[in-house]
Amino acid sequence: MEIIITKENSVVTAALVGRLDTPASLEVAGQFESLKAEASGTIVLDCASLEYISSSGLRLFLSLRKAAGEKGGKVIVKDISTSIRSVFMMTGFLNLFEIQ
Asked: For the CA atoms of the chain, what is the radius of gyration?
């Protein structure tokens, strides 16, 4: 699992590459913590190269959304695959995030 973080003006984009399963969630938790520091602006989670997401990965997304809500920011999830969209639909995450 790799996360490539870029910042342009007040928008931080995190490109997620690979599988966000339980072991990977533990590995990238620190990077999600650094994203929370930017949560007063807009955070874009680019999922074009995300192959899989587990409940641990969903928990990271949810904690980032909560931090953004507390700081007046927002989280946008973009370019999710059909399989990840199904997971989002089953878990109610489609209603929690702005999906592009």
From this structure: 12
pTM for this model (two decimals): 0.95
What is residue 2's three-state secondary structure? strand
What is the residue range of 74's domain?
2-99
In order of 23, 45, 47, 51, 57, the CA distances from 38 in angstroms are 24, 13, 19, 25, 19
The number of distinct structural domains making up the chain is 1
Residue 32: both structure tokens together: 């999600």
pLDDT of residue 10 exceeding 90, the answer is no
- For residue 24, the model assigns a pLDDT of 96
Bridge pairing between strands 74-78 and 2-8: unpaired
User: Domain with 79 in it: what CATH number?
Assistant: 3.30.750.24
